[in-house]
Amino acid sequence: IRIKGAMPRMQALKEVEKSDGVDTLVAICAICKSQFSKVLPKFDFDPYMIVSAHQLVSEALIMDKPQTINSVAEVTEEITE
Prior knowledge:
The chain is mainly alpha-helical. It has helices spanning 2-20, 30-39, 53-60, 69-80; strands at 25-27, 50-52.
């Protein structure tokens, strides 16, 4: 049942993989990620190509320097002025 339910999504993924070079599938929740990681190998995909939306955001964040109470206060002062 799980494989049949995932088939339309896997077909769509296969199409965009070929046409656009997609190599990552993003899941919005942990349950989706868990389910797809089990189904992906059945359709000749790498089970590790699926990541969570939270993981994508956390990897995209660039922290220049650690924030301290003083730096937060300075930013707050700049905003209020």
